[in-house]
Structure formats: structure tokens, C-alpha cells
Amino acid sequence: MTTTLSGGTPSRPARRPWQALVGGSIGNLVEWYDWFVYSSFAVYFAASFFPKGNSTAQLLNTMGIFAVGFFMRPVGGWLLGRLGDRRGRKAALTATVTLMSVSALLIAIAPTYDAVGYFGAVVLLVARLLQGLSVGGEYAASATYLTEASTPGRRGFFSSFQYVSMTAGQLCGLGLQILLQRTMSDDTLHSWGWRIPFIVGAVGAAVVFYLRRNLLETEAYEVEEGAAAPAERGTLAGLFRHRREFALVIALTMGGTVAYYTYTTYLTKYLSNTAGMSKDDATLVSFCALTVFMFLQPAAGALSDRIGRRPLLISFGVGSMLGTVPIMTALRDVSGFWPALALMLGGLVIVTGYTSINAVVKAELFPTHVRALGVALPYALANAMFGGTAEYVALWFKQGGIESGFYWYVSGCAAVSLVVYVTMRETRHAVLSRAEQAPAAELAGRG
Predict the structure, then answer these.
(1) Where do the TM regions start and end (predicted)?
(2) H-type alpha helices, 110-242
């Protein structure tokens, strides 16, 4: 739908907030679906790319390639954050989803070791490099777009859909895994069935590309595009003029990302390996808890629009610092589905204070000309250092016979972030561009 100016000249299409919300956030669904299925289906395709004989070595090589994706995330954050600040948020969103589609398709069609030797593993490595670049850029691209495309009074609500879509991606991957395991034999899954999830991922990314191609650029970017010198937009020099905000993003992410990976990806393994639950029961607990967690995000985001971001962040910091040790200790001795679900939900409710609003807080800290890069790079660094290593740290403590040390590690990371939450400024009424100055002033007057 277009509008017409008084002189008869058609203006650009009218902005549709819900179209922006879907287009800006749905890429996270595909991204985290791809991330999940690589990890969970590695046990089925590891033997396809490496010599037969040692299944453990095959899996270790495959997961080594998986780890490369984490190292590429800061690079993706830098490159795609720079693109978002210099060429626009829509350009960055389109680039990330293109990388998603290509990486999933490469894995789906990668030739096996029996057919071409190690060339298949090289294709797998290239796919993971592209996927790491994409994940590194997608978070900031969608966080920046969702924040700028929403109205000042609903930024927390809109940006919360980033974690709605991320969790939905994990649930879709988990659901497809359960479906394929129930409908295919183990031999079929090892032979070719493992390719199905990656074909689905490639098709899903193509659909997202179509949706994003029709998105409008954010008004904040358009208004501010000419305000900063072109040499400053999206550069490290321009970003490091905001060193304090850069450090803030790393510090406020530290506790949140460790807690998030602990209560999502690691907890299923913890319930199985430490608590002694069956894999089926542990998977079902995680599926149910993550479903509830997904629906909590918009509610918490909307609450932050009313009371501010800091109260939610502080509640997460206090809850994670004080609650992690008793929750994880109780889970260690859990004996049934319902107690395990209640405890996991307790942890995820605490984590919601971070996940629901962390994207908007980061975006509100930076000016428009370095916002995408300012969100992308420090977040990717913190995520690689703390989130990506959470499972390894947990297993290191477990192997050393002091598994409870990991609980204290999570609590300590939350304590560091809590100091930041208590001392940082409130960002709810932050003005993102000159276009928001008048509305923000009115909101501040009413608040």
C-alpha cells in the first residue's frame, strides 16, 4: 500500500510494524534451527566425512568443525555489522539469510568420504565458516532492525521476538529430530536421512530471503544516514569512540549468555548424564520448558516498556547469582519429569529477565551510525568467550570431579554482570534518531 503526497507524487509504501517484526526476527528461527541440527545430527553424519574405524574420532573431527563456527562469529559480527551501518539494516538482514541458505545447502549436498575422500569434509568446513559468519551478523542485524522499526513505547516488546524466534528454531529442530527418529531406521538416518534437516533449513532460509527482500529500511537509519561522515559509519574507529558502551555490552552479556546456554543446550545433557534421566525424558523436559520460555519473552519485553530495562536485568542478575547453585544442585538429584520441569522452568524464568530485553538494551546504547557494529562485535566476542565455552567448562568441572564448581562459575559470571546492571543508565527512553526526538520527549514527560 502506498500513500500519495499533496502534489500527486506517490510516496514510499506505508510501514507495517508487524511485517517488520516478522521479517526482522524470523531469520533467527532458521539460524538457530541450523545451529541445533548440526550439533544434534552430527552423530549420524560424522561417519560420512571421515575414514571408518574410530567412531569417536569421527565425531570429534565433526564437532571440531562445529567449533570453528564459534570462532567465525566475531568476524561475522564485524563484517555484517559494518555492512548494516554503511549500507543499511535491510542489506545486512538479506546478507545473513543468504549465507544461511548457502551453508545449509552445502551441508545437504556435501559428498561423502567414500566418494571423494576428504573433499567432503572441506565442504563441511566451508559451510560451517559461512554459518558462523551468518550467526555472528544475524543477532545484531535483527536486534538493530527490530529496535529501530518499532515505536519508542514498544521497543522492548518488539525486540523480545528475537528470542521467541531463536527458541522456536531450537524447538523446530528438536521436533524434526524426534519425527525422523520415530519414522526412519537408524541405518537410514546414517545413510542419507541426516541430509533432510539441512534441506529443510535451506528452503526455510530461501523463504526468509523472500520476506526480507520486501522489508522497508528503518526510518532511524534513513534519517541519520547523512548525519555522520561516511568514513565514520560502521568503522572500528567510529565504534571505539564509544569504548564504554563496547565494554558494557561485553559485561552485561557475560552473565546472560552463560546462564542461557546452561539452562537451554547444556541442561538436557545434564539431566541425562548427571541426574540419570533417560534421554527421551530429558528431551521432553527441555521441549516443554523451552515452549513456556518462548511465550514468556513478549510478556517480559512489554513489561520493560512500562517499568524500564534495568529492573528486569537486575532481577536476572540477582536470581542467577543466588538461584543457580540451589537449582542445579536440586536438578542433580531430581527423580521425575514434573520436578525436573519445574526446576528447569524456574531457571528459565530467571533467564527471561536477560533474554527478553538484552537486544534492545544494546541497541539503545549506541548512536545510529555505529549501532549495528556496536551491537554485533562486543556481543559476538562475549558469546564466543563465555556462551560458546559454557558446555566445555561444565564438562571440565565434571571430569575433574567437582561438578558443583560449574554452578559457582555461572553464579560468578552473573555477579559480574549484576554490577553492570546496577550501575548502568536506564535506556528505555533513549532517542535512536532525530525522528524520535519529539515522541521520546513526550514519553519522558509522561513517564
Answers:
(1) 21-47, 59-80, 92-110, 116-140, 161-180, 192-211, 246-263, 283-300, 312-331, 337-361, 373-394, 406-424
(2) 113-116, 119-149, 155-159, 161-183, 186-188, 195-213, 219-224, 236-239
